[in-house]
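request received
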Amino acid sequence: MKSFVPVPDSSDFPIQNLPYGVFSTEANSQHRVGVAIGEHVLDLGAVKNFYPEKYHEALSANVLNPLMSLGYESWAEVRRITQNLLLEGSELHANQALQQTALVPLSSVTMHLPANIGDYTDFYSSIHHATNVGIMFRGKENALMPNWKHLPVGYHGRASSVVVSGTPIRRPLGQTLPVDGADPAFGPCRLFDFELEMAFFVGGPPTELGDRVTVDEAAKRVFGTCPLGPFTAKNLGTTISPWVVPVAALEPFKVDNFPQDPKPFPYLTHEQQFNFDIKLEVDIKPANGVATTVCRSNYRNLYWTALQQIAHHTVTGCNLKPGDLMASGTISGDAADSFGSMLELSWKGTKQVQLLGGESRKFLQDNDEVTIRGFCRNDELRIGFGSASGVVLPAKPFE
Amino acid sequence: MKSFVPVPDSSDFPIQNLPYGVFSTEANSQHRVGVAIGEHVLDLGAVKNFYPEKYHEALSANVLNPLMSLGYESWAEVRRITQNLLLEGSELHANQALQQTALVPLSSVTMHLPANIGDYTDFYSSIHHATNVGIMFRGKENALMPNWKHLPVGYHGRASSVVVSGTPIRRPLGQTLPVDGADPAFGPCRLFDFELEMAFFVGGPPTELGDRVTVDEAAKRVFGTCPLGPFTAKNLGTTISPWVVPVAALEPFKVDNFPQDPKPFPYLTHEQQFNFDIKLEVDIKPANGVATTVCRSNYRNLYWTALQQIAHHTVTGCNLKPGDLMASGTISGDAADSFGSMLELSWKGTKQVQLLGGESRKFLQDNDEVTIRGFCRNDELRIGFGSASGVVLPAKPFE
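response:
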């Protein structure tokens, strides 16, 4: 399958990917839906006449929510048409004038949040991460809480805090306890951290409170995935990459689900594979401009699948809306350089993480830029997610 | 101050109140902004020409968010104009034809969620409730967590779960641990509960992540308040009353803030009163139709004020949007009949709560209707909130 749009070998965005995003340009500040192809964005609103009329509204929208709400079969049809449009010999290939308006260089676009995020849930689904944190705070014997292997633990987050890659994050203030039993202190956060995560957007029609989405139906509810990196708490800056990769693009990289013992309840049991070999990396780049990859992890380290997360979310009474964001929780592997947070990499601040260029870190310092990258790769194909990055700004002085 | 619209003595909605809500009628399904007066709703869109043009869009909207975003001084001006319109001898009083369209009987309206709720935070600000729960789960010695008196503890909730009064709530399913150390069981929730709370809507322009709203500025950010009653977890049904009472209407019922010891940090310290004498009641009505008031509490039992909640929320890096909902947490008093949840009233299921009509409860049963009411009253005036109610539906069978 070959596109007429040039795709460099190292590109995250071959014709087999076609991730969705929302962009604008200097010449046209209107937010528009597009897919990335090589070093361009295809403006879907500009080519909507190649699609059935029932999709025109979603393709001309300024967020992905209308497309997300259309559901599984529509996503497949829209993707098929887009892929055909971008093939060598397509009608778009033959139409130079339309290409001029519809294919926008990536270098000239500003990316925006891809959706209006109704609600944001942050799960805690990596067994290595949960074990590491448990050992640090409760000791080896009680590392995993008793319910951890019975259900996918999750936390409500704050949708307002989700920002698109490139948005700087201000160091917050708060109360800390310098010494156990002493009085708390107030001031800038001292142990500022990132978490390496992946997230998926919920799609399909909204459900009502009390409706269930079974673990087998849940695959039809996963619109697409993106890297996500919250800075510590779930309300002050949760950075996502601007490109949402459809699950269809990840098919060649499906792997066995993480083995689960004990076997979960039937409402959480599924046979179909819903785990993926997605390589994940985190760079830290201090003010000196020298970036260091401090973590190399993989999506496949997740113990709980997205399908189990959805089934559990709804069985407990919760409704879903297209555009809801569900994050995996920090994805750590079992190797020491695969840990997805500074908390783990510095083992609660007991050791330094060495950076190229001579610096070292236990936690993030002001002006550090954190970048999370995700990509799948085999001999023939690279499917990338682009990156999610943010700079730490110093705390505002408190008057 | 006397309105030309009749207001029965027992009404929650005299001209001194004028709570905001969103309504529709059978004849006109359009959601519209209105204020309650006696047994009518004044359709603000229908009388918008009495207001400056800058308010027309907010008054003709289908949610309160535009009005909320206008800010403090606009709320005061809109309220003053509305009050004048409803006075005896006003232009509206003289205009019978306009009254016909603008004054809609409460008995003929359907009420809707008053705002698009961006995010929903549920605080934990009643010292009696936190102490009761602490005693039950951690013992008397460790009842309050060490940080509880230093900052207003809060939890992110799920905005999608907030429903307007009258919406039935389905009993959820989930995992429980019948015996400590045994395997968990899966099935319908056994200990289904309510929580008696109050909430406020955030107003004013949106803030950016990292911007602070100081404790002194925070009063300008409280658009109005309403009763709220989540059913247990924060994602399966959080019922709010349809009427949002402006803070201005509560002025005559201001009381001293709850004494705080130790004195909180300067960023949480304020001199102005922001506590209110609001009587709160909870009824349970089983299928037999006989309602029993099982709890009589008061808003003034809250240890932390709304101003402190806002200041803490933003100092830790979080942004605010008009329409965000912030709930107080369960409001229990110190008397045994003032506890705001069945967990406390039945003291973790160790005693029965007697109902009129012969039944008794430890937790909620299917088909129980829970109603929360709030009102202020002195010798001259009653300012009411209406009520927030919901019926418990049986769990859906699990196939």
